[in-house]
From TrEMBL:
It catalyses: 2 D-alanine + ATP = D-alanyl-D-alanine + ADP + phosphate + H(+). This is D-alanine--D-alanine ligase. Its main location: cytoplasm. It is an enzyme of class 6 (ligase). Belongs to the D-alanine--D-alanine ligase family.
Length: 317
């Protein structure tokens, strides 16, 4: 690539700060290997002044959670006129809110587990036990509980017994004021990365083998606790359907450059979309690097192409 000055944003103040710093370090190294001049910046009170005083050719965002995925940082970069890799601010907001994204996906005919999203105030006003009973009567057990916003499976857990629901709800509400409860789907858990470096396409689906456990925060970021298979050990027709679904979700939600769809293939072979992530992880245990490697690509090569694409967009706006 032509030598470009790139700022990698990582860190921030979300619950996922540590993961973001690890992603940022790996991305910065990969871009340097691809020939870029890279600065790594945290997201704090000095960021805008630093970007104004020494604007880069482009920004690559390695933020997870909070401002890095809900569109806040992207909106500031848009205000400053600095090109960046990733989804525009308004589409970030739409994808960040899981119930909103699920409603759009379902409305377009994509399968997603049945769900209900309820704020903490509803449980307090109407009586927690009565609401929980109605939830179980409607969705059944087991249930997957997760914060309506956030990533890295923080606060997410599978609940198989009615008696365990109150404690699980309290744990989930530690990360958000609203709980998303969805019907737990048994099957093969898969992640599909979508990239658009001039050609919109899905990378090979990655199968996540948790050896009977749950792909929670500990499993995601502890090396050796999970096995990955790429491409996933599924029929060719199912792999094709996974890729088609991931690209469709990317386009439907208005995402740009790179995204990752998390899904479960149920026993009938249907792709059940769980969520779509606008800032896929890049740590040593993350899924995007696994998919890129299977596609014969280096992460630095991929992001260098996305940096060029971001710069080109500025030239035509």
């Amino acid at each position: 690539m032509i030598e470009r000055s790139v700022v990698v944003l990582a860190g921030g103040l979300s619950h996922e700060r540590d993961v973001s710093l690890r992603s940022g370090r790996r991305l910065a190294t990969a871009l340097r290997d691809a020939g870029a001049e890279v600065r790594e910046l945290d997201v704090d009170g000095s960021l805008v002044a630093q970007l104004r005083s020494d604007p880069p050719d482009a920004v690559a965002i390695a933020l997870h959670g909070g401002e890095g995925e809900n569109g806040s940082v992207q909106a500031v970069l848009e205000l400053l006129g600095i090109p960046f890799v990733g989804t525009p601010a308004r589409a970030c907001r739409r994808a960040w809110d899981k119930p909103t994204a699920k409603a759009e996906l379902a409305g377009a005919g994509l399968d997603t587990p049945d769900w209900v999203a309820l704020p903490h105030t509803t449980f307090r006003a109407l009586g927690a036990q009565a609401v929980l009973d109605a939830m179980v009567d409607r969705l059944g057990l087991p249930l997957m509980l997760k914060p309506d916003q956030g990533g890295s499976a923080l606060g997410a857990q599978v609940v198989g017994e009615r008696a365990d629901l109150p404690a699980a709800m309290v744990s989930c509400l530690a990360y958000s004021d609203t709980v998303l409860a969805e019907r737990f789907v048994r099957g093969t858990e898969v992640a599909v990365t979508v990239v658009d470096d001039g050609v919109l396409r899905a990378l090979p689906p990655v199968e996540i083998d948790t050896r009977g456990g749950v792909y929670d925060y500990t499993a995601r970021y502890t090396p050796g606790t999970v096995s990955f298979h790429c491409p996933a050990r599924l029929d060719e027709s199912v792999l094709a359907r996974l890729e088609e679904t991931a690209v469709a979700a990317h386009q439907l939600l208005g995402l740009r450059d790179v995204s990752r769809m998390d899904a479960v293939v149920d026993p009938d072979g249907r792709v059940q979309v769980l969520e779509v992530n606008v800032s896929p992880g890049l740590t040593e245990t993350s899924l995007l690097p696994v998919a890129a490697h299977a596609a014969g690509m280096e992460v630095g090569e991929l992001y260098a192409a996305l940096v060029e694409r971001a710069i080109t967009r500025r030239c035509f706006t």
